[in-house]
Design brief:
CATH architecture: Single Sheet
Number of helices: 2
CATH class: Mainly Beta
Radius of gyration: 11 Å
Structural class: alpha+beta
Length: 72
């Protein structure tokens, strides 16, 4: 089951408090300074732990934001 849209509307990046976009099996912060990605387990369980997140490089993050229609 995918992440519920109502839940996604209230979830925020724990580091920057930015909104998130779903990209496959991860949630990605829309904040260009942090560029955090949080994995989704079992289809709908977001692991929102900074120590378990990854930081995307600027090129990958920019392409992802463009693909999802996020204004930068």
């Amino acid at each position: 089951m995918p992440i519920d849209t109502g839940l996604l509307a209230i979830l925020r990046c724990p580091e920057s408090r930015a909104t998130l976009v779903v990209d496959g099996d991860r949630l990605v912060s829309t904040d260009p300074a942090t560029r955090r990605a949080y994995r989704i387990e079992d289809g709908d369980l977001a692991v929102m732990v900074l120590e378990e997140s990854s930081v995307l490089d600027i090129t990958e993050w920019t392409a992802l934001m463009t693909r999802h229609g996020v204004r930068m």
